[in-house]
């Protein structure tokens, strides 16, 4: 067994039954660590993924050092977590970073040469990371894991977007773009995820006291401007109904495609804007046309790339 992670012996499968199991990325600190503890208190086993090892040793956890921007590392993470408990019920795609470029203020005034290629790590971590995680989670959640105690295949996914995924954020435009993208992603995935018994939603924290903020920022605010971690846990719970995980209809009855903002002690549910009435290209009949063409085309992507010499 790799020394990259530790096993908690008493949770190892002895009778073939395992506790409900979660993979949380960005679990070594802040919101991910709080969610890990919240689930542990409810009897879950948690696979903690992060670039950094957690400072505390927690029972019933498995730490897997992971860079979420790497497909290979996330694939290895999910495989190890599934091997650990034989089931996957919940995934929080939570790891995130802030901007790594200054789009308008790092231009050269003296050269006709183009500026240096910008650092796009924020997109790789905040957007590619959750996309990889959702794809992997759907795969492992839908494996037949009833022998491990799971009532039926399927599961729930929550991605951590941000208030900057709903409102503009000129001081962190890369971050805002990735977090807006996550809202669009869960809204677009929800209807097709239902077919494989997966629910996918987004939480949008306001300002929470964590390690994310650059030095000096948090000191600018007073305590009453911070959203407590308990509000974040209420957001996760409202989307994932953790206490009902053993029920047959746990997944079917859950919410999907939702975006909930947590600010102070308020939960605000955000809906997509309505379309103009005259947008007939996307009425019910139109939607069938989009679905018919795109679902067939997307299915064939791997084959098409191969034909076009792109693989
Ligand atoms: N704190 C806030 O005010 C706030 C507001 C809105 C959204 N969020 C979001 O909440 C999520 C959690 O952040 P947090 O506030 O708890 O901050 P945090 O910095 O305390 O925790 C983020 C964790 O992600 C890990 N991480 C960073 N890059 C990674 C990578 N490539 N692969 C794996 N792990 C990586 C870090 O090591 C850290 O442990 C982030 O997605 C963040 O954007 C936070």
Describe the sheet with the most strands. 8 strands, mixed
Residues in helix, %: 25-40%
| pLDDT averaged over residues | 91
Strand order of the largest sheet: 3-2-1-4-5-6-7-8
Secondary-structure class: alpha/beta
Determine the N-to-C terminus distance.
33 Å
Count of discrete structural domains? 2
Task: Please mark out the parts with pLDDT under 50 across 5 or more consecutive residues, or reply none.
Answer: 1-14
Principal-axis shape: globular
Strand content: 5-15%
CATH fourth-tier homologous superfamily of the largest domain: NAD(P)-binding Rossmann-like Domain
Q: Which CATH C-level class of the largest domain is it?
A: Alpha Beta
CA radius of gyration is 21 Å
InterPro entries: NAD(P)-bd_dom_sf (IPR036291), Sc_DH/Rdtase_CS (IPR020904), SDR_fam (IPR002347)
GO molecular function, one term: oxidoreductase activity, acting on the CH-OH group of donors, NAD or NADP as acceptor
Family: Belongs to the short-chain dehydrogenases/reductases (SDR) family.
Pfam families: adh_short
Question: Can you lay out the helices and strands and say which pair or pack?
Answer:
Blueprint: E1 21-25, H1 30-41, E2 45-50, E3 61-65, H2 71-85, E4 90-93, H3 121-141, E5 155-160, H4 173-193, E6 198-205, H5 229-240, E7 259-263, E8 266-270, H6 284-299, H7 301-307
Parallel strand pairs: 1-2, 1-4, 2-3, 4-5, 5-6, 6-7
Antiparallel strand pairs: 7-8
Helix pairs in contact: 1-5, 2-3, 3-4
Residues 25-26, 28-32, 50-52, 66-69, 94-97, 125, 160, 162, 205, 207-208, 210-212 line the site of nicotinamide-adenine-dinucleotide.
Family: Belongs to the short-chain dehydrogenases/reductases (SDR) family.
Pfam families: adh_short
Keywords: NADP, Oxidoreductase
């Amino acid at each position: 067994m790799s020394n990259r992670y530790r096993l908690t012996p008493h949770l190892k499968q002895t009778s073939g039954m395992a506790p409900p199991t979660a993979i949380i990325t960005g679990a070594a600190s802040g919101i991910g660590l709080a969610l890990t503890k919240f689930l542990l208190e409810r009897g879950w086993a948690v696979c903690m993924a992060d670039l950094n090892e957690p400072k505390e040793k927690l029972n019933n956890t498995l730490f897997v050092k992971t860079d979420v921007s790497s497909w290979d590392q996330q694939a290895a993470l999910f495989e190890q977590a599934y091997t650990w408990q034989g089931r996957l019920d919940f995934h929080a795609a939570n790891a995130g970073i802030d901007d790594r470029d200054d789009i308008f203020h790092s231009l050269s005034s003296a050269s006709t040469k183009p500026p240096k290629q910008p650092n796009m790590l924020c997109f790789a971590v905040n957007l590619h990371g959750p996309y990889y995680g959702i794809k992997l989670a759907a795969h492992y959640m839908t494996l037949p894991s009833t022998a491990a105690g799971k009532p039926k295949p399927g599961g729930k996914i929550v991605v951590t977007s941000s208030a900057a995924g709903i409102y503009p954020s000129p001081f962190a435009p890369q971050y805002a773009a990735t977090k807006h993208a996550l809202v669009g992603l869960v809204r677009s995935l929800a209807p097709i995820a239902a077919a494989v018994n997966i629910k996918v939603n987004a939480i949008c924290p306001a300002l929470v006291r964590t390690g994310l903020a650059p030095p000096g920022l948090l000191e600018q605010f007073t305590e009453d401007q911070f959203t407590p971690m308990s509000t974040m846990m209420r957001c996760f719970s409202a989307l994932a109904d953790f206490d009902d995980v053993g029920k047959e209809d746990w997944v079917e009855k859950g919410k999907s495609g939702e975006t909930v903002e947590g600010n102070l002690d308020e939960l605000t549910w955000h809906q997509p804007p309505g379309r103009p009435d005259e947008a007939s290209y996307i009425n019910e009949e139109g939607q069938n046309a989009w679905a018919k063409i795109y679902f067939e085309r997307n299915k064939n992507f791997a084959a098409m790339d191969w034909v076009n010499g792109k693989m």
